[in-house]
Amino acid sequence: MELFTNQVLAGIATGAIYACMALAVVMIYQAIDHLNFAQGEMAMFSTFTAWQLMQWGVPYWGAFVLTVAFSFVGGIIIERLLFKPLAKAPILTNVAGFIALFAIINSVAGLIWDFTIKQFPTPFGSSPFLGSQLISTHQAGMIGVTVVLLILLFFFFRFTRIGLAMRAAASLPESARLVGINTSWMIALGWGMAAAIGSIAGMLIAPVVFLEPNMMGGVLIYGFAAAVLGGLTSPFGAVIGGFLVGIFENLAGTYIPGVGNELKLPIALALIIVVLVVKPAGLFGRPIVKRV
Amino acid sequence: MTAMLNVKDLRAYYGQVQALHGLEFGLNEGSLTTLLGANGAGKTTTLRAICNMVRSTGSIEFEGAPLAGRSTENIVRLGIAHVPQGRGTFTTMTVEENLQLGAITRKDSAAIVSDIERMYDHFPVLKQRHTQQAGTLSGGEQQMLAVARALMLRPRLMLLDEPSFGLAPLIVRDLFRILGKINREDKVTILVVEQNAQLALELADQAYVIETGRIVMSGNAKDIANNEDVRKSYLGY
Question: Which domains, ranges and CATH numbers included, belong to chain B?
Answer without folding.
Answer: 12-235 (3.40.50.300)
